[in-house]
């Protein structure tokens, strides 16, 4: 029984999708609700704030678990590593308000499509539907399967036949009203968020709440000026953040709003055609495409006619694409499965633009609405901007660990303070206040905010270089990239205009310079468009003035030849093809067939499979593949930086290998091993052949022992480009890759280590390849045009779409530079942002601990720094350092290794620990040495400094001091000594941590930061050295002899020298760390490193000119099939 309750209590939403969620049912309980309200009041809102931060606690406190069918609250949890919670209230949609036909209250379905989830979601006889709204998507309760189902889309189970027959004539008025009410408006509505909402969300951030708590403490201790300064800065910070968020909200709202008001002509059953606003469209509606330019307001499937569409928003590639009607077949398979991965050629996506619509003899082009609102392709883009996927990057996890560590130190300080102040019999209020002050001093609340400064500045610099980013968190990850996959962007390609001209023309005529032509022109009557899955395209044409119909096909030579009559294919076809492809030419095969069609035939109804057979082979069209001028320098730069380059293309394998050689992806001295894998045939198991490519050096057998040792020595570098240290590269096509994944999965990691060329790869195979490379612990970048790479671009750590758009569904990064120069730019900025983030975190940690040590020493004798002393440290020094430290630009040359990817790493931890030790040593020395000076007195009050600066009038312990109690806790020789030691130490660590080369430009190129550090140092020295009564009284300093000031400066000079030497000569010395790693026998834990070490010990690797067989034939398919349809 308990198991059944749990089963009903829990369900998985969006299974196997990117936004997969776990849903748990809860019911609000009156007594629990009352207790919670009492808790809110008694805790003065603290409990409410806690529930705001932890929504799951709110649900657990107010509700009891129940089945989802009875639930009035649904608790949602992401299935990723973050396990983030949100909760949603279950609402009801009342259909009884509609004027429904008689019989609606009975068991008859309200929606004509019996398979529709709407029918299964309506509660009879009440005519109500339960629903929840999650991230702009509506889910309704399906009573038959006891689950929440997404609504706003046509069911994927529909066949080609059912789409034509169920929806071809349109929907009735009543059904449209029901669908409208249940699915919601067809609008991508982005609210311009009110300023008060943004303001509350910002100030309820834990960072600002912690700051408010700290300020309350400071104010209670009389630190008015300091607190006011922090309040002013916080108000400015919140104001700027709210302004920025408001601007983003407005920009996104304006971007999508115009598409919500498109006028469309809808066909309704029994009522004919009528014009209405696109927001009233529902899934299943039929609308007309009358030839005018139209920005599509929904996702729709074409059921009549053909269209030419600009899919720039969707793919990032502004090249017209031809869409054809969904075939009217009796196949029982769902329509997407029937069309396989090529179903997209029938779909018109929301946000794309119809350039031209071509009608058939039956009337204008028509389309059935598939998805509306945020379920559409454009809605998906907007949702990815509104709700970016959290990134589990090591930096953010380590920063949290840092905060936890600092909090532990703060707790120790709290215990220390309680002991000291209690020992001196101080009032409880003072003990609590001082203990909390030391606790807050150790934990700079700005660490999470500071992590984003480097990213923000890097994003601005990228924008200037025409590289746009919709997920800024990924910029830091770009600093760790060590492998980049390239599609065809390394070669010159035809322009969008050239292609558009070829597609747009319905009649092709001889050019003006043609001397003579056998025909006046050729009419293109129908087109079977090209797709990466089919690797071919065909057109049905007719010569002007003649009655004969012809079919022409072009495509991959291997594919086209398979559709031709064998007697028409030359016997030396393969040899001839190899001759051209081995020289790097791009080769397309051409074929023709005369069609025997009856006079009244509609060519639009022709089945592709029927007409594309028995063709006559015409010949090969050979085109030169010229590398873009930027390609070689970029690939050489990446190779010098030990970043692997891989070619993943749809071209012929031999062509791809030649292009890779010409681009120096494969060096001349290296051999290329072609991997050819075959599926099992009959009783023969799957096989894999290792064939040495022609032109490869046959002498390059498996690396010798001495070579292996050299490779191992080179592998001491953090990142090694495998292609440089090995003498061989693997190359394969998509079919072989698929067989490897299915039947030779254990070999896949070995092959991927040195695989450089992947040809004839389908979009799904590209996604799978990226995922397999990530399993080897590579940080993968993917550069593509967006058209056939959407899945791979999203899957990669950094997907870069070359596009004219500022944002596309295709990838997190979009470059308007139409070549691969953007790749090293992005890696440079990523590295600079990552190093800047580390530097700021290290600085804030040191700043907090420097202040903590100084305050703890003063607490020993029940004293504290003064108001303005804290003000200078926190505002004049630390705030300005945090704002400007990350302004240093990226170093123009990529270093041959990556920056550390973890805060919790020996160099970074040692840097913090050693600098803290130096701080403790120097401040303790100053604290103890000042007590031994002949002029020192324990309780001193400020007196005028004489001109000679040696006559001091101390107040003895027995004298009546006229100073206030506040002065007595501040005025001391220890405080006067510790303040310059701690303040100038903050400036020293800011300088030391702002390292330039190899990832950032030198510090002096950051003019603002350099000027600020110089000014801060000048202010601190002036305040400490100036024998001016006004300065000393304001800063609450005591006069000290000149010789003591010299001692303090000498201590600071020693601190600087030791800190700089430790950081620059020891901790940042890569060769020293390599030596230490070699001595202790450290080996990288990355999977690809482990495989490299294993292969270096294998004398039989790589196999050459051999053939292996699978141990047993298996039907197990490893590759995730969702990739095949995700693109």
UniProtKB/TrEMBL annotation:
A Pfam family matched in the record: P5-ATPase
Q: Which EC class is the enzyme in?
A: translocase
Extract the Gene3D superfamilies matched here: Calcium-transporting ATPase, cytoplasmic domain N, Calcium-transporting ATPase, cytoplasmic transduction domain A, HAD superfamily/HAD-like
Q: Which UniProt keywords apply?
A: ATP-binding, Magnesium, Membrane, Metal-binding, Nucleotide-binding, Translocase, Transmembrane, Transmembrane helix
Span of domain P5B-type ATPase N-terminal: 17-142
Entry's Gene Ontology BP terms: intracellular calcium ion homeostasis
The topology of this chain with respect to the membrane is:
Multi-pass membrane protein
Q: Does the keyword Coiled coil apply?
A: no
What Gene Ontology terms describe what this protein does at the molecular function level?
ATP binding; ATP hydrolysis activity; ATPase-coupled monoatomic cation transmembrane transporter activity; metal ion binding; P-type transmembrane transporter activity; polyamine transmembrane transporter activity
Family annotation (InterPro entries): ATPase_P-typ_cation-transptr_N (IPR004014), ATPase_P-typ_cyto_dom_N (IPR023299), ATPase_P-typ_TM_dom_sf (IPR023298), ATPase_P-typ_transduc_dom_A_sf (IPR008250), ATPase_P-type_domA (IPR059000), HAD-like_sf (IPR036412), HAD_sf (IPR023214), P-type_TPase_V (IPR006544)
Assign the protein's first listed, main location to one coarse class. membrane
Tell me where it resides: Membrane
Q: Where is the Cation-transporting P-type ATPase N-terminal domain?
A: 164-213
Q: Which reaction is catalysed here?
A: ATP + H2O = ADP + phosphate + H(+)
Kindly list the residue ranges recorded as spanning the membrane: 34-53, 226-245, 399-423, 435-458, 844-862, 868-887, 908-930, 977-994, 1006-1026, 1046-1067
Identify one Gene Ontology CC term for this UniProt entry.
late endosome membrane
- Per UniProt, residues of the P-type ATPase A domain are 261-385
E.C. number(s) listed in UniProt:
7.2.2.-
Which protein family is it in? Belongs to the cation transport ATPase (P-type) (TC 3.A.3) family. Type V subfamily.
Tell me the protein's name.
Cation-transporting ATPase
């Amino acid at each position: 029984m308990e198991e059944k309750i749990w089963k009903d209590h829990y369900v998985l939403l969006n299974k196997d999708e990117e936004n997969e969620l776990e849903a748990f049912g809860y019911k609000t309980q009156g007594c629990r609700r009352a207790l919670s309200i009492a808790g809110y009041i008694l805790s003065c809102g603290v409990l409410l704030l806690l529930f705001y931060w932890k929504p799951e606690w709110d649900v657990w406190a107010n509700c009891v678990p129940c089945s989802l069918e009875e639930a009035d609250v649904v608790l949602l949890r992401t299935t990723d590593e973050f396990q983030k919670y949100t909760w949603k209230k279950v609402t009801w949609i009342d259909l009884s308000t509609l004027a429904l036909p008689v019989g609606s209250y009975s068991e008859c379905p309200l929606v004509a499509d019996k398979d529709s989830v709407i029918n299964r979601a309506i509660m009879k006889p009440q005519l109500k539907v339960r629903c929840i709204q999650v991230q702009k998507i509506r889910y309704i309760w399906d009573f038959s399967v006891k689950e929440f189902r997404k609504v706003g889309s046509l069911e994927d189970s529909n066949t080609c036949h059912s789409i034509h027959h169920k929806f071809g004539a349109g929907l009735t008025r009543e059904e449209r009203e029901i669908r409208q009410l249940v699915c919601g408006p067809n609008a991508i509505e982005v609210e311009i968020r009110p300023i008060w909402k943004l303001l509350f969300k910002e100030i309820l951030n834990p960072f600002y709440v912690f700051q408010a708590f700290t300020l309350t403490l400071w104010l209670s201790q009389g630190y008015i000026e300091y607190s006011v300064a922090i309040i002013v800065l916080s108000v400015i910070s919140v104001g700027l953040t709210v302004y920025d968020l408001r601007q983003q909200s407005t920009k996104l709202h304006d971007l999508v709003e115009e598409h919500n008001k498109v006028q469309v002509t809808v066909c309704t059953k029994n009522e004919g055609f009528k014009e209405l606003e696109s927001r009233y469209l529902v899934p299943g509606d039929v609308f007309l495409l009358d030839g005018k330019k139209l920005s599509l307001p929904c996702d729709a499937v074409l059921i009549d006619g053909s269209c030419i569409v600009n899919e720039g928003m969707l793919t990032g590639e502004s090249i017209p694409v031809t869409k054809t009607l969904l075939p009217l077949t009796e196949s029982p398979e769902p329509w997407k499965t029937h069309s396989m991965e090529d179903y997209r050629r029938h779909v018109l996506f929301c946000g794309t633009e119809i350039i031209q619509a071509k009608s058939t003899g039956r009337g204008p082009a028509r389309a059935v609405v598939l998805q509306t609102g945020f379920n559409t392709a454009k809605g998906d883009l907007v949702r990815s901007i509104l709700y970016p996927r959290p990134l589990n990057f090591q930096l953010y996890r380590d920063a949290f660990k840092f905060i936890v560590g600092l909090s532990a130190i703060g707790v120790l300080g709290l215990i220390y303070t309680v002991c000291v102040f209690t020992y001196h019999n101080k009032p409880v209020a003072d003990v609590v206040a001082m203990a909390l002050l030391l606790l807050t001093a150790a934990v700079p609340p700005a660490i999470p905010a500071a992590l984003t400064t480097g990213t923000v500045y890097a994003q601005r610099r990228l924008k200037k270089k025409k590289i746009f980013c919709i997920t800024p968190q990924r910029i830091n990850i770009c600093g760790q990239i060590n492998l980049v996959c390239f599609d065809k962007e390394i070669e010159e390609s035809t322009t969008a205009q050239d292609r558009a001209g070829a597609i747009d023309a319905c009649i092709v005529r001889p050019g003006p310079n043609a001397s003579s032509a056998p025909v006046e022109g050729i009419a293109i009557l129908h087109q079977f468009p090209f797709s990466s899955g089919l690797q071919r395209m065909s057109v049905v044409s007719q010569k002007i003035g003649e009655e004969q119909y012809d079919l022409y096909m072009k495509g991959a030579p291997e594919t086209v030849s398979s559709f031709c009559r064998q007697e028409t294919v030359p016997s030396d076809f393969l040899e001839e093809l190899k001759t051209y492809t081995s020289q790097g030419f791009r080769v397309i095969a051409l074929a023709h067939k005369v069609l025997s069609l009856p006079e009244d035939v509609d060519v639009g109804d022709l089945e592709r499979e029927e007409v594309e057979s028995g063709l006559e082979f015409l010949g090969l069209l050979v085109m030169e593949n010229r590398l873009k001028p930027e390609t070689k320098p970029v690939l050489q730069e990446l190779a010098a930086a030990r970043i692997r380059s891989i070619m993943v293309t749809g071209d012929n394998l031999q062509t791809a290998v030649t292009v890779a050689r010409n681009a120096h992806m494969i060096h001349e001295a290296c051999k290329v091993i072609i991997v050819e894998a075959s599926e099992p045939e009959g009783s023969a198991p799957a096989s894999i052949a290792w064939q040495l490519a022609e032109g490869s050096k046959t002498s390059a057998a498996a690396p010798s022992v001495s070579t292996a040792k050299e490779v191992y020595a080179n592998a001491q570098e953090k990142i090694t480009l495998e292609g440089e240290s090995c003498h061989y590269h693997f190359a394969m096509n998509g079919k072989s890759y698929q067989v490897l994944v299915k039947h030779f999965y254990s070999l896949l990691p070995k092959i991927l280590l040195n695989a450089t060329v992947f040809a004839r790869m389908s979009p799904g195979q590209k996604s799978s390849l990226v995922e397999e490379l990530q399993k080897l612990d590579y940080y993968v970048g993917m550069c593509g045009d967006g058209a056939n790479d959407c899945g791979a671009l999203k899957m990669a750590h950094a997907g870069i779409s070359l596009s004219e758009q500022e944002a596309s569904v295709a990838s997190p990064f979009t470059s308007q530079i139409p070549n691969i120069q953007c790749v090293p730019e992005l890696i440079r900025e990523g590295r600079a942002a990552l190093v800047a983030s580390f530097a700021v975190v290290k600085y804030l940690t040191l700043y907090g601990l420097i202040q903590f040590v100084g305050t703890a020493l003063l607490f020993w004798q029940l004293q504290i720094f003064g108001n303005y002393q804290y003000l200078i440290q926190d505002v004049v020094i630390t705030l300005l350092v945090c704002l400007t430290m990350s302004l240093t630009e990226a170093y123009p040359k990529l270093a041959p290794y990556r920056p550390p990817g973890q805060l919790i790493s020996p160099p970074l931890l040692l840097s913090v620990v050693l600098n803290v030790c130096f701080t403790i040593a120097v401040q303790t020395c100053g604290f103890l040495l000042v007590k031994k000076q002949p002029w020192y007195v324990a309780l001193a009050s400020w007196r005028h400094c004489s001109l000679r600066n040696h006559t001091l009038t101390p107040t003895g312990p027995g004298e009546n001091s006229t100073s206030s109690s506040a002065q007595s806790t501040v005025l001391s020789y220890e405080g006067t000594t510790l303040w310059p030691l701690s303040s100038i130490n903050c400036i020293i660590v800011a300088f030391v941590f702002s390292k330039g080369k190899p990832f950032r430009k030198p510090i002096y190129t950051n003019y603002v930061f350099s000027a600020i550090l110089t000014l801060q140092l000048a202010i601190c020295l002036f305040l400490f050295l100036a024998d001016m009564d006004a300065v000393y009284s304001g800063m609450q300093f005591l006069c000290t002899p000149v010789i003591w000031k010299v001692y303090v400066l000498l201590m600071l000079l020693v601190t600087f020298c030791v800190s700089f030497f430790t950081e620059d000569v020891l901790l940042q010395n890569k060769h020293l760390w390599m030596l230490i790693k070699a001595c202790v026998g450290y080996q990288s834990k990355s999977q690809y490193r482990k495989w490299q070490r294993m292969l270096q010990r294998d004398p039989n690797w790589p196999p050459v000119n051999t053939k292996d067989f699978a141990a047993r034939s298996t039907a197990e398919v490893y590759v995730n099939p969702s990739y095949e349809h995700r693109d």
